[in-house]
Amino acid sequence: MCGRFTATFVEPQMIAARFSVSESAIPAETLGRFNVCPTEQVLGVCRRDGARQARDLRWGLVPLWARKLRAGPEPINARAETLLEKSHFARLLERADRRCLVVADGWYEWLRPERPRGERVPFRYTVDGGAPFAFAGLWDVRKLDGEWLASATVLTTSANAVCAPVHDRMPCVLDSPDAEEAWLSPDVDAHGALELLEVLDAARTTAAPANPAVNKAGVEGAELLTVPAPAEPVQLELG
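Structure (tokenized):
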């Protein structure tokens, strides 16, 4: 699965150039993030009127029937293998204007503790040495309490050899700008879109331990990317 991710880049002009969107349309609150959590706003890229558009999306897909938030399940992930079996996901997959890119530069997974009640150990995964990339996502828009809300889910697939020791699932990372373009293309149908959701080559994936402070939602900062040094033992002096 993918329950937390990072978007640590802070240069909107770089992201605009990389994903072919307007720099002014990139929401500032989606940049410089070290602990993106469900229900928060994320940077999405979708296609509208033939052109790419950057927009903020709430992470957690609001169901079609919902009239208010948290009225039911709001999936942050959807399994790529079963998208066509779920009517809501299948409907979005079939529409190119409801496929999206979720822009990121890493994601977290947690190793279960060996000891009962032990603290889970977080690992951060990056692609191509930490370069920005895109998760494949689906998005939709609902009118809630008189206001329009756009929300999204990140697709997942089987873990590659680097990710598998910690978790058997990983997010669907589109493997190139060409794949990103095809994911958003109206010329690609649902079955063609599914073919783009291949497991990312393990050789392009790097794992590194992260700061356990990331276990708590709402915590932010670059220090989350590194494991803190162990505290020095207290030395007693005899007086």
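The chain is about 10% helix and 35% strand. The mean pLDDT is 93.
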